[in-house]
Amino acid sequence: MAMRPDVRRHTIVLIAFAIIQWGFMRYIISHQVFNLDTSDRILYFCLSSFGGAFMIFGALIYMIIKGNADQPS
User: Fold this and answer.
1) Which long-range contacts (CB under 8 A, 24 or more apart) does 47-50 make?
2) pTM for this structure?
3) What is the pLDDT of residues 33-71, one digit of tens each?
4) How far apart are CA 72 and CA 69, in angstroms?
5) Is 45 exposed, middle or buried (0-12, 13-18, 19+ CB in 10 A)?
6) What is the C-alpha separation between 11 and 40, in angstroms, rounded?
């Protein structure tokens, strides 16, 4: 059961994008780039974390469903 290269590449790109956007949002929150108050920082951090986790899980599910080379999709 080999993984198709294009599916693996798409999955890696989505996971990398999720981690990079989380790190970028973490930098913005930690260094007060937009001068947010505490409740806004908590809200943006939670939204960024949930969005990144959703994207990672979506990429993994995509890899599981579309990655099997044995069955046509």
Assistant:
1) 48/21, 48/22, 49/22
2) 0.80
3) 988 899 999 999 999 999 999 999 999 999 888 877 665
4) 7
5) middle
6) 31
